Amino acid sequence: MPWQLKFAALALIWGSSFLLMKYALVAFQPLQVGAGRIALGALTTGVLASFAKVRLPRSWRIWAHLQVTSLFLCTLPFLLFPLGEERVSSALAGIGNAATPLATVVMTALLLPHERLPARKLLAVVVGFVGVVVIMSPWEAVGRPDLVGFGMTLVAGSCYGIGWTYIKRFLADADLGGLALPTAQLLSAAGQITTVLVVWWALQRGELAAPWSMRPGGSGLAAALLGLLALGVLGTGLAYALQFDVFRAVGQQVSSTVTYFIPIVAVLLGVVLLHERLTWAELLGAAIVMGAALVIGLPDRTEARRADGVIAPEAPAPVER
């Protein structure tokens, strides 16, 4: 399958994940939604990997780095997004996801100093943060979004930029192809989120009989379960396999720009199915942020010349198993 089709599938799958989180939050706590999503995603990739007889990484160094990437690509964002959606609309949470390319540029400058970033990308980051300020509308006394909730979605979106840059810096020579790395990453994240869930439940035992118990007085269990199932199997298991393929095909900076299509899908679904509404400031700020992300995603001259064959591609790095 061409990477462009996988890219489009990712935009649709991840764009709908904000709607699915709203459904799941009707009956479950945010941590339960995040834990269920990761567990189902790990189960999905694990089953597919076993049928394909995929061999997981054996190096302790790879597994150590995976603890970091799992934290930023799974555990933190999958917890912060549902926490944020308890305070803001699914459409606005989807817009917060567009912070990924901005964080990618910042982390590239920090972790990959040998990669020279053009001035237009650095300027786009500044413009993108201006768009975030417009969305937050600090000059408005009423009518602005919940700053804590929207802030959580911004941090969650930024985590993706940190995680993928970290992979490029420390695991570029360790990718075994196929489902090996996404499966290992989701298994690592499952261990992390399970630990957090057990500790959280131990503090809530007076209200919840088990870690998977519904909210007290929760309703809409069928819709919540279906939403969580789709969020885990499609929005996590399948999506992460597709994302790694796109990352391998076009690199971290271009693959991260899927995030400026995700808000479009999230806003459309939120408006049509949940009857959500955005203020003029939120729409204007979203346009600024996504415009900045689009500029960041444009290929550099060096990348374009390499794609045209003017510059020879870099030799592949050795693979560590």
| Alpha carbon gap, first and last residue | 26 Å
Number of DSSP strand runs:
0
Structural domain count: 1
- Hey, roughly how much beta strand do the residues contain? under 5%
Percent helix among the residues? over 70%
Provide the low-confidence segments as ranges.
304-321
Helical segment count: 13
Indicate the mean pLDDT: 85
Q: What about the largest sheet?
A: none
Give the SSE order as H and E letters: HHHHHHHHHHHHH
Q: Which structural class is indicated by helix and strand composition?
A: mainly alpha
Could you tell me the radius of gyration in angstroms?
19 Å
Shape: globular
Topology:
Blueprint: H1 3-25, H2 30-51, H3 60-85, H4 90-96, H5 100-111, H6 119-136, H7 147-170, H8 180-203, H9 221-250, H10 252-255, H11 262-273, H12 280-297, H13 301-307
Task: Give a description of the structure.
It is built from 13 helices and no strands. The protein has 321 residues and is an all-alpha fold. The chain has one domain (3-212, 220-299). The two termini are 26 Å apart.
Short description:
The chain is mostly helical. It has helices at 3-25, 30-51, 60-85, 90-96, 100-111, 119-136, 147-170, 180-203, 221-250, 252-255, 262-273, 280-297, 301-307. The protein is built from 13 helices and no strands.
Keywords:
321 residues; mainly alpha; 71% helix; globular
